[in-house]
Fold:
Amino acid sequence: MAKPGMSRLQIRSLLRNSAAGPGWTLCVGAGISRPAFPDWKGLVQRLAARDSDPPSAKALSHLQNTYSSDALLQAAMDRLAMNDEQFAELLATELYSDLVATLKPRHAVKLVTDALTARHIGDLTRTDWQRFIDVLTLSFPNMTALPLGRAVGQLLQGPASPTSILSFNAESLFAAVINAHIATKRGVKGGDKLDYVVHATSDRKAGRIPYLFCHGLLPVPGVKHQHISSVDKLVFQESTYLQLANTSYSWQSASFLRAASGNNIVFIGVSLTDPNMRRWLSWVHSTRAAELTEVGNPAPTSTVHYWIAKTPGDAAAERWTESVVAHLGVRLIWVDDYPDIVPTLEMMTT
Structure:
């Protein structure tokens, strides 16, 4: 039987203890960036509307209930008769459209895009980083990335810091928010704590932690010189998903497997439906279970990873969800609502 969700008593100092031992990794998904960016389902709907013969709402709903989002994104590229480069440009336009349209005040667009494409904290002034946070707070007051970025920025300065951050988003907002909080707290000189990793050959510096863009990084529309985008590493269409699934030697799979086998992973803003993520977790968990059995300590329900998620509000749904991820070595930490996520992480690290 799957383990029930962890209690508040069980999670206290959990990650602080992990940091002193094997280390822990933060894994974030699209949920932390809403509503600044659309989810995959919304992205498919926008692309379908661009078709010269778009499907009806009923037909599109049927398609989305039948096929995965990556399969439908692949279909969208075919329907729109685009090559990889053209499709990446369109994806970037659609991905950033809500963010740009919602920013307050309107003249803050350049400030925000400068922050999103900054390679180093010193690329902007301390005042600009503070204005960046102020603009996002005014425009998206309920976005999880804002308080989460503040909390992680503080963790990076202390003994409970994660050893890496895995992002399954193709945008850099959360990384920029972390940098902004570090800059406003500590200043911009020598303040870099993150290394942006978008390729296997991305630069790494001692004393920094890797922020890995496992699905690639789309360029920010309208910004000419961008040093950290990786259109060639995008994992959106089904063809790239399948290609990535068939090898364990890509830098994305190697990075995830390294974290899953050596660290405790904390998932925030993810749905744990990504087939590659589930496959990788299943590999690691089955290996761990087999090794425990070999040393005379069988633990088929052993879990080393944690998923902070909003409760569905139904006890049976909670139990089923716990069982859905138990064989992946993941245990739930239920919260009543999204604002409770950051206090829960802070409890785990103090």
Summary: Residues 8-348 form one domain. The chain has a mean pLDDT of 89.
